[in-house]
Amino acid sequence: MPPQKIDTHLHIITPLFTRVARSLSPASGGTAGQVVPSWSPSLAIQFMDKYGIKKGLMSFTSPGPLEGGKGVVREGNVGMRDIADYDEEEEKGKGEKKGKSERRFGWFASLPDWDAEEGVGPVIEEIEWALGEAGADGVSVMTSYGDKRVSPSSCFGFPGHEKFRPIWEKLDEMGAIVQVHPTQVQVTPRYIASEVAQPILDYTLATTRAATDLILTGTMSRYTNLKIILSHTGGTFPYIAERIITQAPDFDMSKDECRRAIRRFYAETAMSTSKAQLMAVTAILPPDHLLWGSDWPYNPESDIQGSIDELDEYINGGCICGVGHPDQDMSDVKGEDGVGAAGRKALVGIWADNAEKLFGWGKYAVEKK
């Protein structure tokens, strides 16, 4: 049985979110072809208890409340803050209020539309409020806004826009932890085989495009005080990383600089625990940059249990993590599976330790400055 977990990809669904999502997709009652599931704090706690999750980081999925404007974004963030602050035992008079790192819920704040007519001012204001006064654990950023990618560049439109740079400067100044979450992709035809929901395939490509953009625009190299978590092990990015590296010289970046920038990414494993996916991501990222995620309640519990089993088997039986990775000590490699005790020990941190270290929780609470 895997140890206690921290879920870095736990979605929250509120009446506010459902109203916004259905206004955008009235036919399906959902978003990007998915139906909006039921959600409540008690249902989330039940799920977490069932699967040994000691803490869940809440975030809204695409399109989040950003489609409703900055007032709706703030309303959604206040709701997450209140849920994260809630302490059932304190409410019942059974104990003292828990410290932030001990509470069951954390949260990634949503941000207003980066590409709105009001400019980036409302986005920066929400970052300051969320990471300052409200105590969010990080912010959630979509893979694209309008026809622009999430990182700035010198060219207009794709792959980004220069006006986004002040947002990254503020996030870097505040040492933010940024979750990059895929959003709907404007493609024709919209749905593969007429009905495959975009999160199944297109979301992985959206994350790949955003990650590539963050590398080649120099965003990952320029803003080194922030941390970026890619959803779903970075989509298809780990598979094609070497193709991206070959483009580095065209962007005034050496191939080694490109590889270093790639290794700065963190990635979580929601819906991405096949051996092929894990082999790819562990080949390009340090083991302590990998986090666990469930994607509940959109990901069915049967699939979540299957992903837990897959990851556990990979760590304990068949992983070849770190082969050729410059940040991995492979001095004890032996056996047919390609790795010894050091590699396995590093990967065990996926369940919880890597997240605690990143966010400064648990035994890392005092150490983090």
From TrEMBL:
Phosphoprotein is among the record's keywords: no
EC number(s) in its UniProt entry? Answer: 4.1.1.52
UniProt keyword list: Decarboxylase, Lyase, Metal-binding, Zinc
Q: What class of enzyme is it?
A: lyase
- Listed GO molecular functions? 6-methylsalicylate decarboxylase activity; hydrolase activity; metal ion binding
Q: State a GO cellular component annotated for this protein.
A: cytosol
Name the InterPro entries for this protein: ACMSD, Amidohydro-rel, Metal_Hydrolase
Is Zinc one of the keywords?
Answer: yes
Reactions the enzyme catalyzes: 6-methylsalicylate + H(+) = 3-methylphenol + CO2
Task: Tell me its family.
Answer: Belongs to the metallo-dependent hydrolases superfamily. ACMSD family.
- Name-wise, this protein is 6-methylsalicylate decarboxylase
- Source species of the chain: Pterulicium gracile
* The organism's taxonomic lineage, starting at the top: Eukaryota, Fungi, Dikarya, Basidiomycota, Agaricomycotina
